[in-house]
Amino acid sequence: MSFHPPRKVILTKEQLEHFQASEAHKNIISYIETLNAAVVGVKLTDDCVESPGVKAVVAVLDQVEEIAKATPPVDNKASRFGNPAFKTFYDKVAENASSLHATLPELPGEAIPELAVYFGESWGNRTRIDYGSGMELNFLCWLICLERLGVVQESDHVALVIRVFWRYVQVMRVLQSTYWLEPAGSHGVWGLDDYHFLPFLFGSAQLRGHKYIKPKSIHDRDIVDEYAKHYMYFACIKFINSVKTASLRWHSPMLDDISAVKTWDKVNSGMVKMFQAEVLGKLPVMQHFLFGSILAWDGPLPPEREEVEQDDGHWGHAHAHRADLSGAGQREVGWGDCCGIPVPSVFAAAEAEKRRQPGPRLVGAGIRAVPFD
């Protein structure tokens, strides 16, 4: 097999439509549905088979977290946006990508440059210092590639969700809180939370058929705290509660709407459909998608660019202009223009609110919750 570094291809609505009918699209959806089915009724705390490949992948994620811990944020008190130290972290991950991949069993050396691109893009955008569902999608693509190349197998599917993917989310929480990563784009309350989608999808699969916990239970903090260690869905709700105050109805209306659904089966099936529509079906997200030899593009290619700036976060995609929207609203065009309006991270907003409070202040790693008027 001939490998090559992935590149951006989708620039137009027509190319997006071609992708939606492509083999790559089918493979991504199939993989999500397969992992989803594997964790129905499975808790994060359950025992599962962890193959050498799974253990090696988890070890790689552990190393990424160590790189972050060795790269503290710089003094950036004047800004409520992303911390510039993230660029240093990103570069360190890129420098170590080859050696990290070399620790994965059965991985052909010639495939590393292709996988390293998906791996690097999984942590956020270096230029904009932001993170969103598109970066999360890159991590999923990295897992697809690892399975195609034999690093992990079908028997690893449970572990890939409750060990590997959940470890990735935990590392991302470290990056989000350390570097104040901004939410990618300007979707705001149109998203499930500021950063992630798949933990809610897989998390709702874990809860399918549960006899006692219902979707409306996310409004009971005692239940959320009790079950956060067992289920991704509740762990994500607990995270949101830790950085935002007031009711979910105010700052997370989509999650509030979903909580009215009667069963987790319906929540889960709805999540899969929503992922297809709101992530794989939206040009602002998919303009950033990367095609290589494993997840290949079979349509017409855009012209090659000879001079590309490393920090050009806008290269490889077109911006939506007002003339293109034709009066369409948010529901029609998705989460705003591809790069969106800069939105301070919830951690930065919390820190700013803390400084506004009168009286003595506690100094430490704890972060105040964000009040919503």
From TrEMBL:
Catalytic activity reads: [protein]-peptidylproline (omega=180) = [protein]-peptidylproline (omega=0)
Q: Which Gene3D superfamilies match?
A: 1.20.120.1150
**Is Cytoplasm among this UniProt entry's keywords?**
yes
Q: Which GO terms describe its molecular function?
A: peptidyl-prolyl cis-trans isomerase activity; protein tyrosine phosphatase activator activity
Keywords from UniProt, A to Z, are: Cytoplasm, Isomerase, Rotamase
Single GO cellular component term? cytoplasm
Q: What is this protein called?
A: Serine/threonine-protein phosphatase 2A activator
